[in-house]
Amino acid sequence: MAAAVVRGREILASVVHAQIEVHAPYGGVVPELASRDHVRWVSQVVGEALRCANVTPAQLGGVAVTAGPGLVGSLLVGLCFGKALAMRQGVPVVGVHHVAGHLASAELADERLAAPYLGLVVSGGHTALYRIEADGPPALLGETLDDAVGEAFDKVAKLLGLSYPGGPAVAREAEAGDERAIAFPRPMLGEPNLDFSYSGLKTAVALQVEKRRAAGALAARDVADLAASFQAAATDVLVTKARRALRREGLGRLAVVGGVAANQRLRREIEAAARADRFLAVFPPLALCTDNAAMIAAAGARLLLRGEFDGAGLGTFARAPVHAR
Ligand code: KG4
Ligand code: ZN
Fold it and tell me: How many separate domains does the chain show?
């Protein structure tokens, strides 16, 4: 659950109420617990964002809410609260697509990121490449055919017995490991398309874990090497496909967004590619990589400036391509 107040490119306040303690015992998000926690916190989190920004509800020019995709139970809580707040203040409400929010986080971070540019969206639910134009919806160039890359990080963390959330835990373990220890496959690298696939890589890690477990307990050294080798395979594919997309589309700017954009190996490898191929690579600051409300507010503000807003009939959606909004 998160709330933020933005004015133009400036983030006046951004509050994130993480639910890690709620879900950690289960090793993943439990939808019913998530929505109940949203109900409990929504009013306080929005109130805290306004207080931190030193802004009263009457000073708001509009309200942006995430309409989807996501867990509908949780989305509904934010949507109802946002609609009610907008109605009470007599300002417009606008529904934002989660991926459009992630893309806006890069635009918030660096004003050199002008359209057209390539957007690499890497999170727990998405792994996709988009061509972003100044006008019109993002054009999908390629996406994962099965698991998202963040999901693969989370599943590998579980296999290795690491804590939830998995991405940062795998990255931490990887620091002590040798990424050349195990030659994991680089899925879809040989294919000429811009698509991804992560379920085979996850299975390859599972097989290696089983093999080692059969021979005894998983040693700390093994965990570190498996984490590093998996991280290298998972991120190499992202870098190669992003380079290919930039070349194919004739683009000189790349934005890497979503929770996995916080990964330091991915950042290093993209930076190296940017120097070699001479393109501009933009990453949001770490706090704006994982889910936050500032990116939703920024994306919503842009829609409102274009005169696009919704009415009381605005609903949520569990799935929809980003060009739905
Ligand atoms: O964007 P996000 O906060 O939520 C979704 O929209 O899914 O992304 C969360 C994902 C999780 O799968 C998490 O494990 C991953 O981002 N993640 C990372 C890192 N930090 C978060 N993956 C790899 N390395 C990280 N440092
Ligand atoms: Zn996200």
Answer: 2
